[in-house]
Amino acid sequence: MRIALPPVIDGSAFAGHDPAAPIVTLDGLTMGTRWRVLFVPQPRAGAAAIRAAIVARLDGIVAEMSHWEPGSLLSKFNRAAAGTWMALPPDFAHVMAAALRIAALSEGAFDPAIGRLVDLWGFGPPGPMPAPDAPGIIAARAQSGWHRLAYDPALRRLRQPGGVGLDLSGIAKGFAVDAVAGLLQAAGIRHALVEIGGELAGFGIRPDGDPWWVDLETPPGIDLRPLRVALHGLAVATSGDYARGAHNLDPRTGYPASHGVVSVSVLHASAMEADAWASALTVLGPAGLALADRERIAARIVTHDGGAAREHLSAALGGML
């Protein structure tokens, strides 16, 4: 067993530590998957009120950023006429700014504007589609691309150039994890683990004094030494094709990414950042380690090619072991 520890330990997490405290578990459905929260309760934060607040927060994010909800703000943007400027609420603006920044840093390996390609390949709201031909992919790529968007951070507004389909599925779930974690902290909760569909963030410690331990996902049939992460002020996101097949598109080509990558896990202080970087590195494959090292991203890339599995660790993750 290998252990990955966060770069910083929050000493205040141990103040008033109660080894007899219970752990409360809440869960539910959102974004086509499950959410789950484990937390050490506080007297002024009842479980019923916390659940209601979590549900309301997640519903608000879906109403803004879901490409599956026809009435969401994102869907309205996707239908907007060419030249339309749309004002974005703070959450949407925060996610959009991060998405465009990571798109630029990854040179388009992560791209929030590939909704037309996602739909063409049958991974979006229209449902399964026949395998697209080259002319169809070329046409969809012509309507896609983060570089076609204009974002005004001062006024928090985004311009629809015409035909662009936003798809924030590679970053919004991570943002939702951060949002729920922030909600819990604002309610006075000091120790919690938040999960939405496999993306997790933890802060504080468990009543037994341990951090919130999480094992990185290992794809079936892959023999790797287990890697356990202490989610203490840390988040983890995993992307890969082993669960749902080859659904990770390379925005730069319009075709599924093909580097033999079966799984990418990223550790970061922000689940949103971890989510987006995991998506980018799934597209880039092992060649993306240079970018991960440059940006100090803690990442594990697992490949399976020629019958052999290989694990590639970025320098930042290696330094945490």
TrEMBL record:
Record bears the keyword Flavoprotein: yes
EC number(s) per entry: 2.7.1.180
One MF annotation (Gene Ontology) recorded for this entry: transferase activity
Keyword set, alphabetical order: FAD, Flavoprotein, Magnesium, Metal-binding, Transferase
Pfam families for the chain: ApbE
Keyword Transferase: yes
The reaction(s) this protein catalyses: L-threonyl-[protein] + FAD = FMN-L-threonyl-[protein] + AMP + H(+)
Cofactors demanded by this protein: Mg(2+)
Organism domain of life: Bacteria
Enzyme class, spelled out: transferase
InterPro entries linked: ApbE, ApbE-like_sf
Family listed: Belongs to the ApbE family.
Protein name, per record: FAD:protein FMN transferase
Organism phylogeny: Bacteria, Pseudomonadati, Pseudomonadota, Alphaproteobacteria, Sphingomonadales
